[in-house]
């Protein structure tokens, strides 16, 4: 026996039995194809939207579905319908007219139940003809949203970890057995996330009646509350603020474990120094007027989302050096504040050196003036940039250093000269709705793998990146023939086209067979 045979035997002996089985299956074409079919079905039917009760009954691929979004107002009474969904984890009811479901129809294994936001949905025990308690849910259920409680809550079993009340009667609130272990097991210690979204003008919530236990996530809307009564165990807090908790327009927080905070207000928010705990890493703020004091944000903040009504950024140090994600969203009452923010972010405010993700919605770079993006505005750490819809300015070479993904806003329509876009790092590029400038050879770096052209694009495409795997040409006005044999790179595996490409014979039909996935929208 030669040395090669000995080596092969040694290699085979080193392979574990389960690995041998894998390679045996993988070499079998029939089994391999069947695996891919099953994986594609799992991916395609993981989440499904169902419009009618009849569609629910006749759903073909029940064993692959993990989430159902149910749009019908037909009540689900048949105990066998949902039990046929083997891996169902979430049911979300969308129709505001949906009212009744019996707990007996819920399959074992279900984890999350979401009712419509604006409805009087009831969990109903049809066998006893009465509103049921949470104890009749399958023991697998851990998360219940938008609960409508008409009658007193007798018990919430320990398996439920997250519960959000969308509506609760004052009688139910006063008579509910929140104490004595009725609220989430012994002392309420099983509930980790609690939400109350109820009308404070008709419902008065006394926090003294609820044993918070180990609650870590708290969501409140239209609540008048005393911060001193909130549990110190909180790590996540979401507040829709009203005047009752805005004292002289200043908010103070002293929760030492708080990691994530979301503030939404119809009133003015003023942020002063030392207002937030240093433990805070994620902060979202939305208000018609947000005013920041100097160095008022925690030094360890990683994520910041604000509306463009923010003021007080004239100093260079308003953003903490630790920040990695900054998202600026438009506010319906932003007025001139949006203009102020977008100008200052370029002219005066130093973006943190570790910033990775920068996103502007509605407004952003270049809003209201002719501000140009120049080298040095963007830190070299940045990999993701989403321009605001109003940005339409010239971009200088080296102004976009190491970006991996760029999304231009809807109004951008400027020439992209060769060398303007990052040469080696850029992977995904989305060109705006209005973009209609000719792209020269070298304008698109070869590193790009995903390229999307805007709705109004109608220029001859003469060159595409050699690494391109996904191309979206959903451009109804496009009128130029495409020589796919010379233009499309061999690695292109997904092509999205508008109907005019097929109707007007703008593209060779041969590419439909050579590309793995072709979508015509």
Q: Rg, please?
A: 28 Å
Gap between N and C termini: 62 Å
Secondary-structure-derived class: alpha/beta
Low-confidence stretches: 125-129, 184-188, 243-249, 334-340, 366-370
Number of E-state strands = 27
> Helical content, roughly?
10-25%
For the largest beta-sheet, the strand count, sense and barrel status come to: 21 strands, parallel
InterPro entries: FNIP, STK_FNIP-Repeat
Keywords: Repeat
Organism: Dictyostelium discoideum
Pfam families: FNIP
Offer a quick outline of the entry.
The protein is α/β, with parallel strands linked by helices and 521 residues long. It is built from nine helices and 27 strands. The strands form three sheets. The chain has a 21-stranded parallel β-sheet. Strands 4-6-7 form a three-stranded mixed β-sheet, with no helix packed on it.
